[in-house]
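Dear Dr. H.,

I hope your travels went smoothly. While you were away I took the liberty of generating a structure for the chain from your last submission, since the lab meeting agenda had it listed for discussion. I wanted you to have the full record in hand beforehand rather than looking at slides cold. The sequence, exactly as received, is reproduced here:
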Amino acid sequence: MTATPRERVLALIEGRQPDRVPTDYWATPEFDARLKAELNCPDNEALWRKLHIDAPLRLAPRAIHTHHPDDPQADMWGVRHRSIRYGTGSYEEVAVGPLAHVTNVQQVHAFRWPSPDDLDYTAITRAVREHDDYRPIRAGIYEPFLIYCAMRGMEQAYEDLLLNTDIADAILGHLFDFHFEFNRRIYEAGEGRIDLTYVAEDLGSQTGPLIGLDTYRRFLRDNQKKMADLARSFGVHVFYHTDGAAHLFLKDLVDEVGIEVLNPIQWRCAGMDRESLVREFGGHIAFHGAMDNQQTLAFGTVDDVVAEVTDNARIFADARWICAPCHNIQPVSPTANILAMYEAIHAVGGH
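The corresponding predicted structure, in token form, is as follows:
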């Protein structure tokens, strides 16, 4: 009997044998719109069913106040963005960070921080009651240093971790307090139906770690563990995202934070080769991603894509793997390559 996407994904995460390798789909808005148009799919569900993708339904509370009270042009964190074109699409870049000129802890505390009360969680309850259990549900998020960098400026944010530790503690403390209650309310509103939550921090660059291990432990690890423990107390599995060469942090993430799914497996980055990851961590976590969207999916041939799918299926054969692009599929990626990825995994990934 064919499993549903939810049954398939949960079987994999929980260490049971799924009927086939699960799949997921991440893409930029530009590529997503193009693929749906080319395949005549009006929405996500139509696309996912056409390509047999096991993507989760993502739920979030509704923002009551969409802008910061002191700046109608800013988001809830007081950050202004601007759209930057890059030829085939665009992305949002930080234009103004509200804490860029803060020099002491008192100024941090004086900032008008968002409150969990600024969101309506009843939309989550309605959605889970209406959902038919066909797809897994993902809800909740914790990625504080990403927000920190936007509020403070990236260069200053990294300097703070070494030179302004009191400011770093204050800002990260506010971000943790908000997200702990924010996520708690999400899980409560989910009435036991939320399967996955997103805990993240980009810890690696293309060539190595972005921060030292001691710095990660000092500022990020313990609060990540608290957030993961909160999720687990509601029966929610922990999906963890970090780009790049993040091997330095993986033992802490697995042994201390207790992550259950690691994304996105950029295996061309230093220390992230797939065979080593399987040997070290294959008995403890599931792997999500590993289809290279920087080279293979974007600039390779259909044969290259099929070969990478086949390699991944072999390397992860004795581990747990969700086949997906190792980040958002970019607009330069040929449609034929993406179709080949899903066709190939369904051909070689059955059990």
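Two observations you may find useful: The radius of gyration is 20 Å. The CA atoms of residues 298 and 333 lie 4 Å apart.

With kind regards,
E. W.
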